[in-house]
Every structure is written in structure tokens, then in C-alpha cells.
Amino acid sequence: MVSGPGGVGKGTIAERLLESDDRLWLSRSWTTRERRPGELEDSYVFVDRAAFQANIDAGGFLEWAEFQGNFYGTPWPDPPPGLDIVLEIDVQGARSVRAQDKDALLIFVDTPTRADQARRLRGRGDPEEAVQRRIQEGERERSRAHELDAVVVINDELDRAVDEILDVIERRRRDELEPDT
Ligand code: 5GP
């Protein structure tokens, strides 16, 4: 699971992880949020509230959460055999997944400083009010991630951060193969 405050670059990191490790499989979430200008069409399944609610009622989500007035949900993942699932998810969603799978690894990606986070949010065109809300939400997410024993990775330099995460994943795979060593 990849979490982190808004503007930290989780989406880019998730893409890069997928490109670098062919044993990873990315789950595509559903959201009721509007697509941002320039955002890829397939970054989410964009739906209206009625469709989202219908999928909740049908038991179609592994987890879902409301985040700043919009719904986000992870459909039940169905990866090809042998692949590890990557979820880009907020920390409350991560908590819910962890409750269902205690071995789910949580990587919390953070910006080097709050000022970097604000700059990145403004840079992608978020209105100032949303920037402030996401910064505050980021503070809450940091402390919740800590409670979930997240591995914190600072996105100071994209290639370095991606390599660090790939290494954490690889070590986790080895530990699972050799639990007693
Ligand atoms: P954004 O609007 O910036 O794309 O996402 C807002 C927040 O929702 C981010 O923290 C993102 O990780 C989280 N998120 C994205 N997909 C899901 C999901 O399926 N479930 C949950 N719980 N959070 C999600």
C-alpha cells in the first residue's frame, strides 16, 4: 500500500514501481472526484455518486472511504497469479486493509518539508483552500501512518525514493519466504 499526503507524488511513484518491477500489479480505485486538468483518464475509474453507492451496496469494494467530500474505493482486486498488489490509498483505507490482511505492507511517502508539499499542490493547480485542507489532512495522516508502523520514504528525489521502495518490497518478499531468518 502506498499512502502519503496530497501532492507528495504517490501517483508518479506507483507508476514507476510498476514499470520497474514486473511482479507488481496496480489496483485502480474508483472515485467520485472530478478529473483534474491534465490527469490521465485511467488514473481512476471516475464515477458519479449513484454508481459508487450502487457498488457499495453490491459489496463491490474491499474498502472505501470519504476523503474531503469525495468517495474513493478499492474494488476487490483480481491480479494474475503470483503478482503482488499495489494500492494507492489514504491512511484510513490502509488501516481497513490491514485489518483484513495483517501482512499488508504500508509505505508512507512524504515530502521533505511542508513547504514542498504546498508548492507541489499549487503547482498542479489545486485552489488555495484545497491546498490548506490537504496540508492539514497530511498532518493527521502522518500520525495515523505512524500508528500503523508504516515505512516512511521521503520523496526528495524521485529515482532515489522509487529505489528505496523497491528495496523495501524486495526485503519483505524475502522475509516472507524465510520467516525464521
Ligand atoms: P486524490 O484526490 O489526490 O487523487 O486522492 C485523495 C486521497 O485518496 C489520496 O490520499 C489517495 O491516496 C486516496 N485514495 C485513492 N484511492 C483510494 C482508495 O481506493 N481508497 C482510499 N481509502 N483512499 C484512496
Describe this structure in words.
The chain is an alpha/beta fold and 181 residues long. The protein has helices at residues 10-20, 49-57, 91-100, 114-123, 128-147, 158-177, and strands spanning 2-3, 24-26, 30-31, 45-46, 61-67, 70-75, 84-86, 107-110, 151-154. The protein is globular, with a radius of gyration of 16 Å. The mean pLDDT is 93. Guanosine-5'-monophosphate binds next to strand 5, strand 6 and helix 3. Guanosine-5'-monophosphate is lined by residues 3, 6, 10, 29, 33, 63, 65, 67, 72-74, 88-90, 92-93.
Number of strands: 9
| Topology pattern, helix = H, strand = E | EHEEEHEEEHEHHEH
* Biggest sheet overview: 4 strands, mixed
Strand order of the largest sheet: 4-3-6-5
What structural class do the secondary elements suggest? alpha/beta
Q: Stretches where pLDDT falls below 50 for ≥5 residues?
A: none
Shape verdict: globular
Layout of secondary structure:
Elements: E1 2-3, H1 10-20, E2 24-26, E3 30-31, E4 45-46, H2 49-57, E5 61-67, E6 70-75, E7 84-86, H3 91-100, E8 107-110, H4 114-123, H5 128-147, E9 151-154, H6 158-177
Parallel strand pairs: 1-8, 2-7, 3-4, 8-9
Antiparallel strand pairs: 3-6, 5-6
Guanosine-5'-monophosphate (5GP) binds next to strand 5, strand 6 and helix 3.
Outline:
With 181 residues, this protein is an alpha/beta fold. It is built from six helices and nine strands. The longest helix has 20 residues, at 128-147.
